Every structure is written in structure tokens, then in C-alpha cells.
Predict the 3D structure of the following.
Amino acid sequence: MTPATPLESPLPDRSKPTIRSAKEQLILDAAEKVFAELGFKGATTSEIALRAGIPKANLHYYFPTKEALYRAVTENVLTAWLAAASSFDVNDDPAEALAAYIGAKMDMARTDPLGSKIWASEIMRGAPVIEDFLHTTLATWLASREAIIQSWINKGLIVPMQPRYLIYLIWAATQHYADFDHQITALNGSAPLDDAAFTTAKTQLITTLLRGVLNVAKSDT
Amino acid sequence: MTPATPLESPLPDRSKPTIRSAKEQLILDAAEKVFAELGFKGATTSEIALRAGIPKANLHYYFPTKEALYRAVTENVLTAWLAAASSFDVNDDPAEALAAYIGAKMDMARTDPLGSKIWASEIMRGAPVIEDFLHTTLATWLASREAIIQSWINKGLIVPMQPRYLIYLIWAATQHYADFDHQITALNGSAPLDDAAFTTAKTQLITTLLRGVLNVAKSDT
DNA sequence: GTCTATAATCGGATAGAC
DNA sequence: GTCTATCCGATTATAGAC
């Protein structure tokens, strides 16, 4: 595993939509599942090929090495992550901005739990592939959102706090529904949360966190 | 990996403190690190033996199979988890009980991040080893604490909510500092959080969550 | 109890036929 | 472009000397 080479080509050439793309996508989908379950080292190309329904050698034709395949999967995760991150910016009102961001992250945990698991697994092994991303794009994004939250604090809209620990809280709370979905399912009587239950969890999370950080009118002091 | 056999002997025989215990502990400590980083499948007995400073065959003398070693490590994690879980019960006041529990979980994330990572990794791969624990001990613990929180809601001490999503929020927020410590370190300028910063994170988390769920006096409505 | 040597298997990757 | 056959290193586990 080469360390910290910058990721390239987030959207790899859509000019030829379905010539080799079909099988590549088949492989990427299978790889996403296997990497999410077993991590980079635990995943095997045999297992990925098996789940994709192709011979192992065919997989190595499209993705020469296991690491190249892993990096391709990881790029997709980062792309999705950055899309959700922008939902922070659509509103100047802290309540609406935070609610939108928490909601977007919850929706991502619901629709793409595998991406969240791959992220978690990558971080837990020391982030060799996304290390550069952590120190550049993510650090920049975090700093700018800290500044926004700090401005809300200065205006008295948010209670005084360290903004970054609020961000960590949001990340943790939302990604938990993806990373630990097996545990949540087990504690739900072996049935995954249905849409109604998930909506309840999402609404309650937004309510609790907004109550926790929004400054109410100080008329009663 | 045999599925869902109940875990046995949480405290394996302390009558002979240091005859073979010394090397077993050496192996368990090394195994905890390697399993935390690489997961069950990604970890190798060679790597564990290397870090324990013993020949690989010697490891297999003390722990016949990789799975037996993994189960031993997992038992230690469960034991520690149950110890922290009891901190919920020491107090009848919701603010104090929740603060004590959140604080205990944060302290665990600080002192034993590896255990948290092993838990996360085990859940993400489908929990084959702790599945039984999830459906028995953990489900029972969750139900009893839900009942306690519900009683607080009935007394008007806590705002109306689904108690279990509050528990999930506490689990997620606290374990995040263990499971994602590499990311937090990267975003902290490549330096781990020092004790002061961690205390700030812990205090702020307690403050935010208590504000989010405690019912304030309704004198201003 | 401990370690060297090795068996048996698995996994990543490739050669070369089709 | 696709797949069968295979190489070779890595990995789990054991046999047997000390």
C-alpha cells in the first residue's frame, strides 16, 4: 500500500457509458460490500470476484491490483462525502443549517451505509489511503465550518462552545446508524429499522442537538 | 469462525497469578492492538507474535487457534464494557446519572480505545462472535435503561423522546473518540488530544446532551 | 515449556489460450 | 475482451527436537 498518494479522477470518464463500465460497476459494487465488511486487508479479490459473478482473473483485468480497486472504491466514498458536506452552507440560520446538515448525514447513513463503513475501517487502520485528504480538504472544510459556528456563538445564537467538538458529535451520531447498523438491527429484534423508525431517530437527533446548542431567548434570567 | 457460541469464563482463573499468565498477557496485549487495527480477518498470528516478541509457534501453544485468541480478547472487551455500563445506575437524578454514564464512556474511550475499535470492527463484520451477547445481555441492559429514562420522562424530568435513540447517541458520541482517534489526531495538527483538550470535549459533550434532553422549569411558558 | 522446521492451504497476480 | 491454469509468496497450524 503506497502511502498518501493524492487521489485522482473522482469522476472517471463518462464518455463511453456502458462498454466496460458495466462490469467495472459490478466489481465496484461487490468490492464496496466486501471492503466494508472485512476492511482492506481482510477482503480478498476472490471473494469480490465471486460476489461480482466473474472469474478472479477478470477482476484483475479491470483493476490490476487489490489496492487500485480499493482506491477506486474510496474515491467514490469521498465524492459522496463532499456532496453531503455542502448542505451545511445553504442557510445562514444556525437551526436550519445544522438541521439540514444532520439530516443530510443521516440520509447518507441510510442510503450508503457501506461508504461510511469503509471510511471507518480506513480511519481505524491509520488512514494510509485518505491521509492526504484528512490533512487538506477535510481540515480546510472543518476550519471554515468552525468559523461559521463561531460567528453564530459571537452573535449569541449558539451557546459558547468549541465548534469542532460539535462537528465531531454530528459525525459520530449520524455515522453510527451506518457503521453499527448490525447492532441496531439486533437490538430492534433482528429487524432493520423501518422508514418510520429511522425518521423518528433522525428527527429526535436533530431536536436533541438543536436543543443542546441553540441559545434560547434570555428573557427568563 | 464458529457462529454465536456463548462466551465463557470472563475471568479466567486468577489462582496462579504469574506462571503462564505473563506470556498470555503479553500475547493478549499484542493481539488487542493488531485486531483493533486490522480486524479479525486482516490480523495475522505472525504479526501478533512479532509484536509480542515471541515465536509464532509459541503463540499457538498458548492459544491453539487464531479464533480462540480473538475470543479471549473479545471477552476482555465485554468485561470492561459491562463495568462501565453499571455507572448508569448509581444515581436516581437524570442529570447526574447521564453525566456519570457519559463520563465513564468517555474515560473508557480514552483509556481503552483498542477495545472500542475491536467492538466496532466486530459489529461491522456482522458480529459473529458477540451475536449472542447482543441479543441477551446487551438487549436486557438496554431495555432496563430505557425503562429508567422513560420513568424520568413520565416525571417530566426529561423531554418526551424515544429513550433508545438517546442511548445510541451516547454510545456513538463517546466511542467516536476511540474509534476515530486517528482522524481526530489528524485534524488536531497530527497531535493526539492532550488531557486538557479531551476534558474539554468530555465536559462539552455532557453539557450539550444534558441541555438537549433535560426538561427545564416551565415557568416561562 | 519453548522453539525450529515444515506441512497444508489460501490469496494476489499473471501467462497465455480462446 | 474473457477465462483456465498456474506461479509464488504469505498464512495458519503442527510435528517433533530440545
